[in-house]
Amino acid sequence: MSQNRQAARENFRDDLDFESSARSEVWSIHMGRALGVDPAEVEHKVQEVLAENRARMIGSGRSSW
Predict the structure, then answer these.
(1) Contact by Cβ (8 Å): 39, 32
(2) What is the DSSP string of 37-62?
(3) CB 22 within 8 A of CB 30
(4) Are 50 and 60 in contact (CB under 8 A)?
(5) Across the chain, what does the average pLDDT equal?
(6) pTM above 0.70?
(7) C-alpha dihedral sign at 33, 38, 43, 49
(8) CA–CA dist 57, 52 (Å, integer)
């Protein structure tokens, strides 16, 4: 019974996290368009930053996320 309640809470949190992420993405896209920002350029920069951070994490000996 306790495991069912815990699973339900985790599912609820997952749903909230997904909704929050979706809302943030939609707002970011609309704000970017309003400001004349190129989404492809932003995505390219995001990919660069992620790659740099992954390289640093691997270089520091941290093998798991």
Answers:
(1) yes
(2) --HHHHHHHHHHHHHHHHHHHHHTT-
(3) no
(4) no
(5) 90
(6) no
(7) negative
(8) 9
